[in-house]
Amino acid sequence: xxxxxxxxxxxxxxxxxxxxxxxxxxxxxxxxxxxxxxxxxxxxxxxxxxxxxxxxxxxxxxxxxxxxxxxxxxxxxxxxxxxxxxxxxxxxxxxxxxxxxxxxxxxxxxxxxxxxxxxxxxxxxxxxxxxxxxxxxxxxxxxxxxxxxxxxxxxxxxxxxxxxxxxxxxxxxxxxxxxxxxxxxxxxxxxxxxxxxxxxxxxxxxxxxxxxxxxxxxxxxxxxxxxxxxxxxxxxxxxxxxxxxxxxxxxxxxxxxxxxxxxxxxxxxxxxxxxxxxxxxxxxxxxxxxxxxxxxxxxxxxxxxxxxxxxxxxxxxxxxxxxxxxxxxxxxxxxxxxxxxxxxxxxxxxxxxxxxxxxxxxxxxxxxxxxxxxxxxxxxxxxxxxxxxxxxxxxxxxxxxxx
Amino acid sequence: xxxxxxxxxxxxxxxxxxxxxxxxxxxxxxxxxxxxxxxxxxxxxxxxxxxxxxxxxxxxxxxxxxxxxxxxxxxxxxxxxxxxxxxxxxxxxxxxxxxxxxxxxxxxxxxxxxxxxxxxxxxxxxxxxxxxxxxxxxxxxxxxxxxxxxxxxxxxxxxxxxxxxxxxxxxxxxxxxxxxxxxxxxxxxxxxxxxxxxxxxxxxxxxxxxxxxxxxxxxxxxxxxxxxxxxxxxxxxxxxxxxxxxxxxxxxxxxxxxxxxxxxxxxxxxxxxxxxxxxxxxxxxxxxxxxxxxxxxxxxxxxxxxxxxxxxxxxxxxxxxxxxxxxxxxxxxxxxxxxxxxxxxxxxxxxxxxxxx
Lengths: 403, 357
Hints:
The complex is a heterodimer. In chain A, β6 and β7 form a beta hairpin. Chain A has helices spanning 7-23, 35-48, 69-81, 91-103, 106-118, 232-247, 250-266, 278-307, 313-337, 357-372, 377-388; strands at 123-126, 142-146, 149-160, 167-173, 184-190, 196-201, 210-221, 225-226, 268-269, 272-273. Chain A is an alpha+beta fold. Chain A has three domains: 7-81, no CATH class; 123-230, Beta Barrel (Butyryl-CoA Dehydrogenase, subunit A, domain 2); 248-388, Up-down Bundle (Butyryl-CoA Dehydrogenase, subunit A, domain 3). In chain A, α6 packs across α9 (313-337). In chain A, strands 1-4-5-8 form a four-stranded mixed β-sheet. A four-stranded antiparallel β-sheet of chain A has the order 2-3-7-6, with no helix packed on it. A four-stranded mixed β-sheet of chain B has the order 1-3-4-7, covered by helices on one side. By secondary structure, chain B is α+β, with helices and mostly antiparallel strands. Chain B has three domains: 7-115, Acyl-CoA dehydrogenase/oxidase, N-terminal domain (Butyryl-Coa Dehydrogenase, subunit A, domain 1, Orthogonal Bundle), CATH 1.10.540; 120-205, Butyryl-CoA Dehydrogenase, subunit A, domain 2, CATH 2.40.110.10; 212-354, Butyryl-CoA Dehydrogenase, subunit A, domain 3 (Up-down Bundle), CATH 1.20.140. Chains A and B meet through α3, α8, α9 and α11 of A and α7, β9, α8, α9 and α10 of B.
């Protein structure tokens, strides 16, 4: 075990600071660009320095650095301090990119990875359908090869960001004769086309980040398929694995804890700062126990990943664990808000850091969205019980073969 | 960055685990548990021969000179097997002398402790749950008069490291005059306690560096590691039971209600491994964080262990509530780990104060 922050790391920190001093904010002319363009320009430079997308090969636009939690932490801290753009978040970088790197064709990696990670193009994920939630493999959206194009008909639902995305990666049934799981392919498609209609779904928070997507003879080139025909289920497993990792990122729970401590400083209970209230103090400290366990579990997983070893059961748990921490911190925030807990979520949107009371309320509700996205908590418990603990599988019909 | 155990540490766990399996299988453990002393001299000898009891004592005094993380991974394995006997108090007493003793004092006591020929323990708590070095009131000097409570393995220890007013430490030999031990009717029969009364008992104050806080921090780390090992064992016992016990014509592990309960238990166990690792690592390599993370780890894993133990009783149904069922052994280990050195809520309050919150 070695986590030392020695002089080498302090030197690295100075290096990062010097880079930021010279490169952010951008120079006068570039500052006129829209913010997303500025971010893309800055990210290119940060990638050149080896600061962003450290786990993505240089050929595809990453900086291909050896995994190092401490360095990554220093980069996050220093970039955060100067409000410099960090890695573009979103489902494209977190899920599609790792999937393409693992299973994509060479031309697909070349075409899509770089613009995705710089934030130039954005993606949405077409998985769930009205009749196919936890039983995703029962999906019915149809893809037919006509000449050199796939023609797609059907419907997706809960598609986050479909209304603002350039492309979609999706699962469609291309082999209707094959068995349930073997009939699915993983396709990429352009969202800006007449065969696609996006209808927003209003969430319980009041805002509309997710959508229904209708395909009516939507088209995509024959070669925009990841993996072979009928391999879509396997390919999507790669993606889901990455989603669980990324949603499980311990960083977010640490930020939430910090925010709660600040909130407790400002809130009052019976005329005194809530932070002086012993039951609030206990709950904050108890939450920190979970947050720390989460953090070091992340370290363990990362070390195992870097060595190419199986991290074991912890990898299956990260999503559920962060969901449960999310529930605890959401509950605590509501107690700290006291009467302001009667307010609505305002117009806060996903990804916007909660600042005022309504932001906390939005987060209180969003923590449930996170609990469901990428596999409900109960599905996660099944995975842990069956694959992790080796208990008998549910007797549901047509389940995928163990792999 | 490398956050994993070394080959040597894994081997250490393996060796200790093998020894426990051979020398202290569950049938034997139960005879110790139900016996008079809670101690098995033969098992102690085996652990001593493996070097386990002197693991963190410097090599020049006959120990293995290893780090707290090595000690903690050993504690995990011992906790997994519910090892009976004086390990915890012994290693804390050894550590206190190794840090706090003068060269002469180390020379005098450490070799005997390292070889396991002499058993050490620590006398910390005073009336009213005063476990912390800043709370001790027993006056030091050449003699001690007063009472220490919940002293582990008090009846079998050859020497005690005693906490003094002002945070100092003194060593008392158990054959010294004026010592009276009152046996405590403790829940955990694998680790027995006594209350100890001193009446003008000769002692020797440790003359080296301040060691009390470090000893307490390491104590918390070892309780956390032991709790992790114990909770792991309970989870395995429950999974095993779910795979064998049949109701309604199938093993009960088929029922989703139980599967989800076991998954939740697993969530109370597995994520704590890295937490206790870091808490142990910090004792040697991150001194600024050492005290705080030790408090967080003990509070958190101590509570999780207790919860897992309660769940484990439930998961076993009626048999889980019996003396015959092995779950109770770890349940009571959890009670020990939760309350020794102070409660989780005290640790939590301390952890906030240490962060300036």
